[in-house]
Every structure is written in structure tokens, then in C-alpha cells.
Amino acid sequence: PVFTVDTSDAVTIKNYIGTIEGKVNVEVRPQVEGLLQEIYVDEGAYVEKGQKLFKVDASAYQEVLNNALANQNVAKAKLKNAQLEIDRLKPLVDNDVISDVRLKSAKSDYDVAKASLDQAGAAVRSAQINQEFTIITAPVSGYIGRIPKRVGNLVSKNDKESLTVLS
To answer: Are 13 and 146 in contact (CB under 8 A)?
Structure first.
């Protein structure tokens, strides 16, 4: 017997095991420790650079900031008092009523108060930075990978596992 064979296109499907990686893979990690309070994205979602991804509970960092602001206000008041003391002693020294040693001591107290104010200002800026780190944003645009942590989990910058990988 003779058979006529028709020609046509055929699709062949083969499955292979593998993984796909982006050109840039960035591990997203927290820079502060605390409870994971919010997750703003889903696995596999595309995000833009700077978009909010996660939020760590900021209440402890807010209290540190409030304390630093209070210390800064105390330092401002001490600086003002030191300036008032200088202003009070200067005419007395100019008129030779008291020794200039007291004025030098008051100026030294003023310098200490000024340094304390600078130190308090640095503590405020440090506390503000830590509070800002409670919002974790996307460092680059890309796709969100697996998110192993859930709301309520404790996260830390020393965790072995990142919050996610952004590709």
C-alpha cells in the first residue's frame, strides 16, 4: 500500500529546570530592628525606585527622637543661660568690680554649653535618620522576589535572610 504524507508545522515542548535572574539583583534588608508592620507590595510586582516596600514599627525610634529633641531644648536653654551670665559679668569686669577670672569661667561654661548643643543636634539628626529607616524603599526599579517575612515578624539588619530580592 502507498500512503501520502502531508507536511505541516509542529510545535515541540520540552521542560527544563532552571532559574531566571535579572541583570541587577538587590537584596532588600532593613537598617533598623523592629516588628514588620506593613508590606506595601506583592511578590512578583514591578516597583519603581524610591517606592515604599516595607514599614518597620517606628514607635521606639520616635521616642528616641523625642528624647533627643528634649535634650536639644535643654542644651539650648543652658546656652542661653551661659550667654546671660556672660552679659551680666562683662560690665562688672569692665568696671573692675570683680576679677576677669569669673568672666573667663563664664565664657568657658558658654563654650561647653555650645558644644553640648552641637552634640544634642547630632543626636537629633541620628534619631531622625533611624526613624526614616523604618520605611524601606526600593533602591532600584524592578520586580519583587519572594517575601519570606510576614507582618508581625521581627526583622533586623543582621538577619541571614533578606526581606526580598529586587531584580
So the answer is: no
Does 143 score more than 80 pLDDT? yes
Residue 166 near residue 142, CB atoms below 8 Å: yes
What's residue 23's pLDDT?
81
Q: How many Cβ atoms sit within 10 Å of the Cβ of residue 28?
A: 19
User: Considering only CA atoms, which of 77, 87, 121 is closest in space to residue 107?
Assistant: 87
Is the pLDDT reported for residue 19 higher than 80? no
Report the candidate in 75, 67, 77 with the shortest Cα–Cα distance to residue 117.
Answer: 75
Q: Quickly tell me which residue has 524610591 as its cell.
A: 50
**Residue 95: CA atoms inside 13 Å, Cβ hemisphere, count?**
6
Q: Which long-range contacts (CB under 8 A, 24 or more apart) does 63-72 make?
A: 64/127, 64/130, 64/131, 65/124, 65/127, 65/128, 65/130, 65/131, 67/127, 68/120, 68/123, 68/124, 68/126, 68/127, 69/124, 71/120, 71/123, 72/117, 72/120, 72/121, 72/123, 72/124
DSSP β-bridge partners for residue 135: 55
159, 29 contact by CB (below 8 A): yes
- Considering the chain, what is the average pLDDT of its residues? 92
Q: Quick one: pLDDT band at residue 151, thresholds 50, 70, 90?
A: very high
Please give the average per-residue pLDDT across 55-60, as a whole number: 94
